[in-house]
Amino acid sequence: MGGNLLIVHGGGPTAVINASLYGALTAAEEAKAKGKVGHIYAAKNGTGGLLKKELLVLEDVPEEKKRLLFQTPGSAIGTSRDELEQKEYEAMADILLEKEIGYVLFNGGNGTMDTCGKLFKTCASRGMDVKVMGIPKTMDNDIAITDHSPGFGSAARFIAQSTKELCADVKGLPIHVVVMEASGRNAGWITAASALAGDGGGLGPDLIYLPERPFDEEQYIEDIKKLLEKKTGIVVVASEGLKDKNGSPVVEPIFQVGRSTYFGDVSAHLANLVIKRLGYKARGEKPGLVGRASMQAVSPVDREEAVLAGRLACEAALNGESGKMVAFRRISTKPYKAEPFLADISEVMLHERTMPDAFINEQGNGVTEAFKEWCRPLIGGELPEMISFN
Fold first, then answer.
1. 209 near 215, Cβ under 8 Å?
2. Residues acting as catalytic residues
3. Pairing, β 260-262 against β 55-57
4. Residue 332 forms beta bridges with which residues?
5. What residues pair up with 205 in beta bridges, in sequence order?
6. In principle, which of 57, 139, 226, 287 could form an S-S bond with 155, CB 3.0–4.6 Å?
7. How far apart are CA 222 and CA 217, in angstroms?
8. Per-residue confidence band for 252, with pLDDT thresholds at 50, 70 and 90
9. Do 164 and 38 fall within a single domain?
10. Contact present, 152 and 141 (Cβ < 8 Å)
11. CATH assignment at residue 186
């Protein structure tokens, strides 16, 4: 027997993080039945729970209960955004020894993969035989190496669907400029996915502003003015992380600790600029956490890959792999095919993946067809078609 197994969630949850938990837990239960694993634990509320030795026992969970993970957003075991120093990694290593844990699976984004890598190095430096593996998770799609991350496809579907619905509403009552704010601190993948709203019927956003391009207030106002010469109802999608040419947020953050930033209301700011500068009616919309907690918008492709990532990470650890993360390599887009592989965690740790230039239009206020082709398969099918007689 190779010891007990521990699953840890980190960072903001997604609509499919529990699907990865299902995959990891199912693989662990199969190994336990064969005598390869002792107890199956989960850290209650992330690394903070681990440091407090608050471990949930996930054994003999009925299949009908486990399958509820597919329709439950958030994290079923709890997650956290703990700031960790080397002394915490040493303390975690001590707890792994005490609890006879031989396998650790970290499910999370950039910060969590950094934690995964540091715990792996700490255990290795102490000569501990502990296998540490990473399961990618981020709605922001900003983890390096992998073509995309579980969590993004569902968030992309949500923003595309919501933008399409918003565009239909504005087309029906075209009296204002509406700014939709999308998640994404430094990477504009979710914001860009709103462009898919225009598929089938043309009900898409008029302008898209990404954090990869410096936001120019004068150009923004000019973009709006030109559109108002042609139409009266305009939809703009903007990233919460917009920055000016000096790299400063266009709206001062409300709160910031380490990598965790609570941005100001960018949508309201951009709407107010239209009102003040152009004297035209405008309003802001901000889905916020709803965008990552919506089960109605879950992409089947996203859910299946999340399960696969959880299962493969568990199986890899049990087969002796350590210090790696499950990643996805795209084989083809039409038809869509991707294959999983193991990436060294050192190549992933806090290397933020942003939108490439080829995916952003020349004007910096929209995306290219290349991005839309890349993104379409991940949202799990076409959006509902809509109609207007106006």
1. yes
2. 140
3. unpaired
4. 337
5. none
6. 139
7. 9
8. confident
9. no
10. yes
11. 3.40.50.460
